[in-house]
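I am writing to request your help with a piece of structural work I have in hand. I am sending you one protein, given as its amino acid sequence and as whole-number tokens for its backbone shapes. Kindly check, if you would, that the fold set down in the tokens agrees with what the sequence suggests. You will find the record immediately after this paragraph:
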Amino acid sequence: MMTVFEVYLAEGRGSAELLSAEVLKETGAQVMTLKEAELVGFQGLQALDGAGDVRLIAVAARDAPWIHRCLEGSGAVVSFRAHQVD
């Protein structure tokens, strides 16, 4: 099972500010734009109208709490939602 986080970035912020290199290495999390996500098989994903820049973070369900804590404490994140994927 996998968790995909739908992350809305603060204005002027980028993907590199979401997760540290250590977190990416330890969890194997993959940070993607919506377009990149479509290329690897995620279908039907659309950003909320007027919500700004979106990134998806795919991670094993066991590591989802770690990613959740990182996103909660990040100044680069305006809001996020988590989705369970089989």
